[in-house]
Amino acid sequence: MADIDKHKRVNDILLGPLERPALQWLSTHMPAWITPDVCTTIGVMGALVTLLGYILSNMDRNYLWLASFGFVLNWFGDSLDGTLARHRHIERPRFGFYIDHTTDTFCQAVFFLGLGLSPYIAFNAACIALIGYLMLGTLAYVRTCVVGEFKISYGKLGPTEIRVLAILLNTAMYFVGIKTVEWVTASIHLICSVYDLVVSVIALLLFSFFFNTAWKQARALSKLGE
């Protein structure tokens, strides 16, 4: 089993060339009272702001902007905590890994449940996407223990891209409103929103990343006899 203190982090994302310099700049300009733990707290508060925005969007679509602001807050806190710790040379590998990814799991659940509690996306569609995300997250943690590689990007997509997609989806929901599609056959009469279709596609991607990676890793370990 790999040592959790020495795992390799793989985050090959589409927005990496923009995100990494931004995080480095932020880490060098943060006041002393902004600590990694404060950043983690900000990230969790951002997730709760998103949840509140989605719930309130049942009354007024303008609260979708609050939900999007919550995603920005979450990105700031979640992405900066580790970078700030490394910049200040105050890393706590085991504590940081544990706290970062337990709070990540909580925030992911909050995001998707918030979507399902909005008037735009069916609760069951949001829950299916959440299952896919949590499965992929669990796979990432298991692989970290087994092979010492913490991989959080798949197909150039990572948490940052998911947040950007969510903000774009919020923007579409704000300007387009609730739009539904309907399928009618001899045995099926299905009505769903166009946003349910978007979330379903995201869920399919998450499931495909999970099964593809899990299968390849299992074959590699089998060949090694481990």
Q: State the domain count.
A: 1
Strand composition percent: 5-15%
Strand order of the largest sheet: 1-2
Radius of gyration from the alpha-carbon trace, in angstroms: 19 Å
Whole-number mean pLDDT: 90
Number of helices: 7
Describe this protein with a few key phrases:
226 residues, Four Helix Bundle (Hemerythrin (Met), subunit A), two-stranded antiparallel ribbon, 7 helices, 70% helix
Describe the protein in words.
There is one protein chain. With 226 residues, the protein is mainly alpha-helical. It has one domain: Four Helix Bundle (Hemerythrin (Met), subunit A) (Up-down Bundle), CATH 1.20.120. The chain is 70% helix and 7% strand. The strands form two sheets. Strands 1-2 form a two-stranded parallel ribbon. A two-stranded antiparallel sheet has the order 3-4. A hairpin with a 4-residue loop joins strand 3 and strand 4. Helix 2 runs antiparallel to helix 3, helix 2 packs parallel to helix 4 and helix 5 runs parallel beside helix 7. The chain is flat. The model has no long low-confidence stretch (mean pLDDT 90).
Write the layout of secondary structure elements.
Elements: E1 8-10, H1 16-29, H2 36-56, H3 63-87, H4 93-117, H5 123-147, E2 149-151, H6 159-176, E3 180-184, E4 189-193, H7 194-224
Parallel strand pairs: 1-2
Antiparallel strand pairs: 3-4
Helix pairs in contact: 1-3, 2-3, 2-4, 3-4, 3-6, 4-5, 5-7
